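Chapter review: from sequence to fold.
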Amino acid sequence: MKASTKPTIYLIDGLNFIRTFLYGNGSVNEENLTAELISWLDELGSDKLYGSEFRLFLDGSFRNVGPIKTPCVNTTFTEEYSADDLIIEQAEFYKSSLKRTVVVTSDRELAQKIKDIGIKTLSCSKFFNAFYN
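The token string follows.
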């Protein structure tokens, strides 16, 4: 897949990304995988996707996953809300603001709701494979 390198706001369904794509080996816990994902996204935003922002949404309360705010990544723990609800809210806001936005999720129901708003979606594996060397 050829991916655009234009500055974009990526809204990422964090636990969906980790559990459906990265979690293959049960010996690595979610906190470590989350920290690795944040680090990879920050490097991606500093290099291949310079000027892009990554908004990572994680269901549940705060967990120690390392830095949750980096130059390119802003991590939100959703507390009493669902990550899906916050992603939809943000997608609607960025759509109305005419900001170039992509939602990264492998959740089919969420992806359909986002497409109905008029925002592009990428599955977690397509996003990862488009930029991982």
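Two observations follow directly from the output. Residues 12-100 form one domain. The longest helix spans residues 30-46.
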